[in-house]
Amino acid sequence: MSLEPGKLDVSQRRQIMTTVQQQLAIQMAQELLQKLSDKCFKACVPKPGGTLSSSEQKCIGQCSDRYMEAWNIVSRAYGERIKREQQRQ
Amino acid sequence: MSLASLANDPELQKFVAEKELENQLTAQVHHLTNVCFDKCLESNGNLSELSSRHTACLQNCVDRFLDCTTLITNRTIQRIQQGR
């Protein structure tokens, strides 16, 4: 398939868009995981021992669930704020 | 497929611009969650659920943080305009 310089065909464009989309999703997931680990390690493992105890594991599980819920609440509140600001203008 | 062809593609440029905006907004949500989780849950992850009080705190936190940012931005612009 030869390419006319300066022109992408539909499938090439779509391929690039998909790749970009995937990269962004991966980046976002990594950032979320990093935040989750930081927060929940800090909250649940004050004194690292030889293993993670079962109570520490339970805490970490709950912590990451709560953080994800908090993320959704914040996301919604932020979206609504933006909408309010736009309506004001 | 050269970079030149990518740069000349208006549909792709539009797509990239939209994605960049989305990215900025999502990054802001990450930052807000980071700050407000600590403020509202007092860095306590060990909760079986979020109460309505927690939810209200998170929502207020978002709005107050953005108010704070707006205030600081306006004040900074004022200072610059006054040439201080």
TrEMBL record, chain A:
**A Gene Ontology term for the protein's cellular component:** mitochondrial inner membrane
Q: Where in the cell is it found?
A: Mitochondrion inner membrane
Domain of life of the native organism: Eukaryota
Q: What broad class describes the main subcellular location of this protein?
A: mitochondrion
Task: Describe, as the record does, how this protein assembles with itself and its partners.
Answer: Heterohexamer.
- Function description: Mitochondrial intermembrane chaperone that participates in the import and insertion of some multi-pass transmembrane proteins into the mitochondrial inner membrane. Also required for the transfer of beta-barrel precursors from the TOM complex to the sorting and assembly machinery (SAM complex) of the outer membrane. Acts as a chaperone-like protein that protects the hydrophobic precursors from aggregation and guide them through the mitochondrial intermembrane space.
Instruction: Provide the domain comment.
Output: The twin CX3C motif contains 4 conserved Cys residues that form 2 disulfide bonds in the mitochondrial intermembrane space.
Q: What is this protein called?
A: Mitochondrial import inner membrane translocase subunit
TrEMBL record, chain B:
Q: Which InterPro entries match?
A: Tim10-like, Tim10-like_dom_sf
Keywords of this entry? Chaperone, Disulfide bond, Membrane, Mitochondrion, Mitochondrion inner membrane, Protein transport, Translocation, Transport
Topology in the membrane? Peripheral membrane protein
The UniProt record lists the keyword Membrane: yes
Asked if the record carries the keyword Transport, the reply is: yes
Q: Report the locations given in the UniProt record.
A: Mitochondrion inner membrane
One Pfam assignment: zf-Tim10_DDP
Question: Where mainly found?
Answer: mitochondrion
Q: What does this protein do?
A: Mitochondrial intermembrane chaperone that participates in the import and insertion of some multi-pass transmembrane proteins into the mitochondrial inner membrane. Also required for the transfer of beta-barrel precursors from the TOM complex to the sorting and assembly machinery (SAM complex) of the outer membrane. Acts as a chaperone-like protein that protects the hydrophobic precursors from aggregation and guide them through the mitochondrial intermembrane space.
Task: Give the family per the record.
Answer: Belongs to the small Tim family.
**Which comment does the entry carry about domains?**
The twin CX3C motif contains 4 conserved Cys residues that form 2 disulfide bonds in the mitochondrial intermembrane space.
The entry describes its oligomerization and partners as:
Heterohexamer.
The name of this protein is: Mitochondrial import inner membrane translocase subunit
What organism is this sequence from? Answer: Adineta ricciae (Rotifer)
